[in-house]
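Suppose a colleague, Dr. K., hands you the sequence of a protein chain of 219 amino acids and asks what its three-dimensional shape might be. Before reaching for any lab equipment, you can write down a predicted structure in token form. Begin with the sequence itself:
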Amino acid sequence: MSSIHSARDRSTIIHGLYALTPDTDDTETLLMQVEQALIGGASVLQYRNKSPIAALRNEQASALLRICRRHGVPFIVNDDLALACRLDADGVHLGQDDGDLASARAALGPQKLLGASCYRDIALAISACRQGADHVAFGGFFASPTKPGTVRASPTLISQARERLAVPIVAIGGITTLNAASLIAAGVSSVAVISALFNATDITASAQAFCRLFETRPA
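The predicted structure, expressed as tokens, is then:
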């Protein structure tokens, strides 16, 4: 068990730049990119890879976990509870069709992180929290190359959710340093980013730019 959760509560763990890995089979490049993102200040890393090759996912996740441990950053696995448990990752993130949240919480235990995708649905987020999720994600908010057909959520969703939820809220979907300010002002705890971070010419500088947006958030 990592010591991350014994030292910090969820509100400080899920905060700032939440890095989501690009879907790739180029493990060497992926590790280099993640290292740069963590140097730049990314506070959470979620490993997301839809490859059917289990050996590749295990290799990448194992290597990324070691990098996260070295940087003291929590490592969350997307949509693979078994992999998260096998590696003793810091948590798992599940979509609506990715598995039962209550069962995931029971398997993870009380100290691990459990995130849930709630799309544009506050009621779904409330239900997720009742089942053991300790942070929730809403989106997508802007046009995204990862999920181009997603129906857009409005930043007002964040302020509405903030009034009803006591857990950290993550925003996702086409977020850049140019459009993140409205979400941060609305009260998100964290912004989840893939393309604007990992497609940047300078990944470390991009991560630092996202982090500065949270530093300048009005009190």
